[in-house]
Amino acid sequence: MELKDYITIVISLLALALSLFNFVISRRKSTNLFTKLSVLINGIESDINSIHFIFKSIHLFPWGHHYKESNELSFQSRKILLQQKIDSFNELLVQDLKIKRKDKENIFSILMGIEGDLFELVHYLVEEEDDLEACQNFINSMLMGVRTIKDIISKAE
Q1: Which residue stretches of the chain have pLDDT < 50?
Q2: pLDDT in tens, 83-97
Q3: Considering the domain boundaries, does residue 82 fall inside one?
Q4: Domain CATH for 74
């Protein structure tokens, strides 16, 4: 064997090692993205539950309507946080994940539905029981969407 044969073998082994290294890194990156998505979706769910409590708190206590302004400020800040998490979730979702295109489209449409429900909630600050029921329907819809997204992500992992 000549020197050029040894060099060719060494270069081939280096290329093989490099491709294996890239495979391991991409696999780890994908796992980290799924972890980030799971953390974000859990955060979105807790924000929705917080918003639910804000709306119910007016009716939980007889003096709840006196704190309407405080509840409204709390809702606005929670809404901003929720919107930021949804935006972050969308950014992570467009990265190269091993999720089927159809599932990604479903997740995007569910997130748009959650944003729509959130927009509808902005127009309600519960003062009557009918408003509370409407808010409950929006919140249940948002929570159902979150659970559906969790199922899709868990199947894709």
Answers
A1: none
A2: 888 888 888 877 766
A3: yes
A4: 1.20.120
